[in-house]
Amino acid sequence: QRFSVVIVGAGPAGLTVGNILRAAGVDCLVLETETREFIERRPRAGVIEEWAVRGLERRGLAGSLLERAERHTACEFRFDGERYRFAYQELTGSHHWVYPQPLLVTDLVREYADVRGGDIRFGVRDVRLHDVDGDRPSVSYTGVDTGRRESVVCDFVAGCDGARGVTRASLAPERARVARHDYGIGWLALLAEAPPSADCVLFGCHPDGFAGQMPRSPEVTRYYLQCPPGDDPDHWPHERVWAELRRRLGAAGAAPLTEGRLIEKRVLDMHDHVTEPMASGRLFLAGDAAHLVAPIAAKGMNLALHDAFLLGDALAARLTRGDDSGLAGYSRECLRRVWDYQEFSQWLSELYHGSAAGDPFRAGTTLAGCAACSPHPPPLPPSRSSTWARPRGTEP
Ligand code: RFL
Question: Which atom of ligand 1 is nearest to the CA of 166?
Fold first, then answer.
């Protein structure tokens, strides 16, 4: 079998690339290890930046999102029992959308497979890449129904298989460099069957550790609690979670938290990594397959979409018009924003975690950071305020 492009992974990155290619009339195949039902339910991100939504909209992929997503223009820090509301839209002119990742994935699969007629194979096993540095790469896998090895020849491979995928390993090791950073911090990531406790994102900077609240939908809310890395979620029974959230997010005049059953409870060890370059021969990585950014600043899915816009457009230009320029500059263009967001994430991490570091100096600078977001702020440094809600450079 032959396709112009094989896309490995049906997350936000892979499905966006697939949709762009189908719209340009390019034949492509998406290979995914999980079932369609599973990827349409897997809970993860929820905060999408305004430029990313505009990018989806320009490609005909934001219809349901714009009907159903909530628009957010402010967030709130809670520190030392005080509330510091940060109306970032007033400062940057930009806002965020809250739209759960499973809904976006559902929209993207439906558009790709059911509307644009794209080929997608779920439940595949043991995906392997071959000859990506040659002119005729291929991808082999075991089909779920047949149990047979299948092989697909293609012009290009898009590696969109997330942080634990296989495509990154096919980059020529002597040319690819992986830079890593470990925060030495864990987050207990929780989903509660309860409406949000506030109309915006909450960040609690507490001497006992960070706590966060992120609205997801009228029925479900995400919470985070800083914990030791590698901690066991079983150390966090229902009562302990809610007592700790109440303490770390408590503030004068704040409404009590709306509690509910915890339907997800997992410990994330906060770390980042970046692979450079993001391409080798005819293999191009996109999203978490190329770079992981800890969910501190809610940037991972946004970066995955940024890569996907650039890669989809570049592959379409190459395959429909013979224009190679997008592919040639792809890695460099993606990495500018990747490093920008990694830097922002490090800065924000200090704001979240500094007061729990047991160091009065770090606690002091954390308080100054929260106070800078108060109703009468000294303006944030331009790089901070722009990264908060808006990317630098042109929109893809
Ligand atoms: P994904 O979403 O991981 O999709 C990769 C797909 O590839 C499949 N796969 C394979 N398929 C074929 N062959 C293989 N060998 C394969 N191996 C894996 C997988 O099953 C999957 O379907 O990667 P993609 O598309 O790059 O998207 C990245 C985002 O999912 C990720 O960055 C975000 O979820 C990160 N993130 C957040 N990002 C935001 O922008 N805003 C947020 O609010 C936000 N919140 C979060 C988050 C991540 C979290 N976790 C779980 C780490 C909150 C949490 C708790």
Answer: 15
Nearest atom in ligand 1 to the alpha carbon of residue 224 is 55
Q: How many CA atoms lie within 13 A of 182 on its CB side?
A: 6
Distance CA 107, CA 285 (A): 22
Distance CA 190, CA 240 (A): 13
- Contact at 8 Å (CB) between 363 and 207? yes
% the chain with pLDDT above 70: 94
ipTM value for the complex: 0.98
Q: Is 101 in the pocket of ligand 1 (CB under 6 A)?
A: yes
Which of 101, 150, 160, 285 for mutating ligand 1's site (highest number of atoms within 8 Å of CB)? 101
pLDDT of residue 393: 55
Residues 365, 352: Cα–Cα separation, whole Å: 11
Tokens of 73: 């223009």
pLDDT digits (tens, 9 = 90+) for 100-135: 999 999 999 999 999 999 999 999 999 999 999 999
The alpha carbon of 112 and the centre of ligand 1 are apart by a number of angstroms equal to: 18
Among protein residues, the one with the nearest Cα to ligand 1's atom 28 is 301
Res 373: pLDDT: 64
Distance of CA 384 to the CA centre of its chain: 19
Tell me the pLDDT tens digit for each residue of 50-82.
999 999 999 999 999 999 999 999 999 998 888
**Nearest-atom index, ligand 1, CA of 301:** 40
